[in-house]
UniProtKB/TrEMBL annotation:
InterPro entries in the record: Peptidase_M18 (IPR001948)
Cited PANTHER family: ASPARTYL AMINOPEPTIDASE (PTHR28570)
Signal peptide: none
Protein name: M18 family aminopeptidase
Alphabetical UniProt keywords: Aminopeptidase, Hydrolase, Protease
Molecular function in Gene Ontology: aminopeptidase activity
Top-rank taxon, per record: Bacteria
Short name of one Pfam family: Peptidase_M18
Length: 433
């Protein structure tokens, strides 16, 4: 098996094992532990050693991993990569039970800017975090992953909606409750969760108290295309970047200070204790720096690369792109630009990245949204404005962003990992190697 094929196989394993941010962070935690990284607790005093790697987790859904370099942090700064762990999905409401026409359904909220039509007629699993009272009276939490088709949102037949192919809007309140079983008797969803947790060897449950659960597509990721040119999967935005950043962090050699941060809640604005607008990253970096002057000097010598997927030019909808800025799948990572600071790229950070792409023999592309269309954003501008670090926004080009199943090129993730590994080893980000 070629190096790239092995990379994609492991990537797909990660994607399939990470139906929620909680599961993604757990998968990353295990990989970091296996690589010798040491777990930290924010409540404890830290004794960090040069040449060692560490990580910490907040809320089970955001993670910061870092390698302590051997040179003074205030003189060398950090090489940072940021991504996000969350993806648009359907989240189960706190009191979700609906009993209608002999069917038991669960009410859902739409998390983030989901493309809703593809959620119909899919085999849906259910995963997330459940909090419960144990038989010893303790408050506990557990991850749950019901990786089998337990729900479906059936479409209305064309015979009952003759205009469905011409104009079909989705009402999230009325159209998206998920059918999970047929029964004339009322059901209690928390009791059902307790039974399922017991099946998954959590046998000390007295009562399920609350939950954060999301439906997801049970179909596993796949290599797609006549020559397997593509990877199809749920949650490529942005678990693809999380995996790329992690692999680059672990592959990088040298003695520089390097950081990977993967935040939750980007898809809903990042304004939380564990989001990119929250204090998590800054508080970690300040503790590493040790004092205010060292912190300010370190930031001045640092750089952040925000890695989040880019819009590849769709062959059926090429008019949606600027004619000179239509990224192709499998044609290299994309530098994302926006003069209104929806992306944090500037000419210095993009030039450094272009040089890294040449050094690693990886092609590079540019994206600018059409001048008559609104531009999305990333954690890049949020991090840049919060801690004052120079920043670059890049990403792997994809199709069907925010759909239940997205598409990326089979070469791009592997190539971007090589570039980011080289970036992590730079002894300077001032514009000279």
């Amino acid at each position: 098996m070629s190096e790239m094929n092995l990379f994609n196989k492991n990537l797909r394993t990660f994607l399939d094992a990470s139906p929620t941010p909680f599961h993604a962070v757990e998968e990353m935690r295990v990989r970091l532990l296996n690589a010798g990284y040491i777990a930290l607790n924010e409540r404890d005093d830290w004794k960090l050693e040069a040449g060692k790697g560490y990580y910490l987790i907040r809320n089970g859904s955001s993670i910061v991993a870092f390698h302590c370099g051997k040179n003074p942090i205030q003189e060398r700064g950090w090489r940072m990569v940021g991504a996000h762990t969350d993806s648009p999905n359907l989240k189960v409401k706190p009191s979700p039970e609906l009993h209608r026409q002999g069917y038991f359904q669960l009410g859902v909220e739409v998390y983030g800017g989901a493309l809703l039509n593809p959620w119909f007629d899919r085999d849906l699993g259910l995963a997330g975090r459940v909090s419960y009272e144990s038989t010893q009276g303790q408050l506990c939490s557990a991850l749950i992953n019901i990786n089998r088709p337990v729900g479906v949102v059936p479409s209305l037949a064309i015979h009952l909606d003759r205009e469905a192919n011409n104009a079909h809007s989705v009402n999230p309140q009325k159209d998206l409750p998920v059918v999970i079983l047929q029964s004339e008797n009322s059901q209690d969803f928390r009791d059902m969760l307790a039974v399922e947790l017991a099946r998954q060897e959590h046998i000390d449950i007295a009562k399920v108290l609350d939950f954060e659960l999301s439906f997801y597509d049970c179909q596993p990721s796949a290599m797609v295309g006549w020559n397997e040119d593509f990877i199809a999967s749920a949650r490529l935005d942005n678990l693809l970047s999380c995996y790329i950043g992690l692999e680059a962090l672990l592959a990088a050699g040298g003695g520089e200070h390097r950081v990977l941060v993967c935040n939750d809640h980007e898809e809903v604005g990042s304004q939380s204790a564990v989001g990119a607008q929250g204090p998590m990253l800054e508080s970690v970096l300040r503790r590493i720096a040790g004092d205010e002057v060292s912190w300010q000097r370190a930031i001045a010598n640092s750089m952040m690369i925000s890695a989040d997927n880019a819009h590849g030019i769709h062959p059926n909808f090429s008019h949606k792109h600027d004619g000179n800025h239509g990224p192709l799948l499998n044609a290299g990572p994309v530098i994302k630009n926006n003069v209104n600071q929806r992306y944090a790229t500037n000419s210095e950070t993009s030039s450094l990245f272009r040089r890294l792409c040449v050094k690693t023999d990886v092609p590079v592309q540019s994206f600018v949204v059409r001048s008559d269309m609104a531009c999305g954003s990333t954690i890049g501008p949020l991090t840049a404005s919060a801690i004052g670090v120079k920043t670059l926004d890049i990403g792997v080009p994809t199709f069907a962003m925010h759909s239940i199943r997205e598409l990326a090129g089979s070469q791009d993730a592997f190539n971007l990992t090589k570039v980011l590994a080289a970036y992590f080893q730079l002894d300077s980000v001032s514009g000279t190697d």
